[in-house]
Every structure is written in structure tokens, then in C-alpha cells.
Design brief:
This protein is an alpha+beta fold. The chain has a domain at 3-83: Multidrug-efflux Transporter Regulator, Chain: A, Domain 2, CATH 1.10.1660.10. Helices cover 66% and strands 10% of the residues. It has five helices and four strands. The protein has helices at residues 13-20, 24-32, 50-64, 69-75, 85-134, and strands at residues 3-5, 8-11, 39-40, 46-49. Helix 3 packs across helix 4.
């Protein structure tokens, strides 16, 4: 039941849920978390505009990439709810870059741990071979 309102596309919760393949409950959950702020009709029904739709797409993309809702809120600029798309993309890019550095650092630490474990296993195996050779 989309309507054109002052050349602005309006969506119902069921339209967005169908389009984005999520439940209306998920959309209400994101609203409860403050990630989207739909307007309300006089009858208190939620109505969503293109901005809400775009934010939902960003939320879902962030979830697919494994980000927490707090991470997503930071990326889409919850402190600055009126950021335009370019600002949101820049912020998301910077956040992603920061996350990649964290991942690379963890990978480096894990590689060091792996090398240590392999060295210990080699020592254990060598000692086992020595003991078996004495039998």
C-alpha cells in the first residue's frame, strides 16, 4: 500500500518486511533499539520513508558481515541520525578499516600462538620418538 506523499515514497511495515525478506517483528526490534525512527500516522501506524528503508538495508548488510548492533549503530551514525548517504558510507568505510586492522592484529597473534603450539608439539613428538626408541 505505498502512497506518494509530497513526492516522497512511503512504505508500510509489511512492504519493507517483504522487500527485505525479514519479519515485521525484526523491523520493530530495530526501532526499539533506536536504529530507525519511523513516523506514525494519526492512527498510530508506523510509516517508513526511503531513509528508513536505506537504514534497514545498512543494518541488514552489517549483520550479514558479522557486526553487532552497537557496531552497526556506530557505522550508520546513530549520534547523527540525519547524516546523508555519503557521510554514512564514509563512516562505514572508516569503521570497516578499523575493524580490518583489529582482525589483522588478532590473526597475527593467532599465528604466533599457532607457531608456539607447533613448536611444542614437535618437541613432544621428538621426546616420544626418543622414548619409543629406548623400548
Amino acid at each position: 500500500m505505498s502512497k506518494t506523499n509530497s513526492a516522497r515514497r512511503i512504505f508500510s511495515i509489511s512492504e519493507l518486511a517483504d522487500e527485505l525478506d525479514i519479519s515485521p517483528r525484526a523491523i520493530r526490534f530495530y526501532e526499539e533499539k533506536g536504529l530507525i525512527l519511523p513516523e506514525r500516522t494519526k492512527g498510530n501506524h508506523r510509516i517508513y520513508d526511503k531513509r528508513d528503508r536505506a537504514r534497514l538495508k545498512l543494518i541488514l548488510r552489517g549483520k550479514r558481515l558479522g557486526y553487532s548492533l552497537d557496531d552497526i549503530a556506530e557505522m550508520i551514525g546513530m549520534a547523527e541520525f540525519n547524516m546523508d548517504e555519503m557521510q554514512q558510507l564514509r563512516k562505514s568505510y572508516a569503521y570497516g578499516k578499523k575493524k580490518l586492522k583489529e582482525i589483522e592484529s588478532r590473526m597475527e597473534e593467532l599465528n604466533i600462538l599457532k607457531e608456539d603450539l607447533l613448536a611444542v608439539q614437535e618437541k613432544i613428538l621428538n621426546r616420544l620418538n626418543e622414548l619409543e626408541a629406548k623400548d
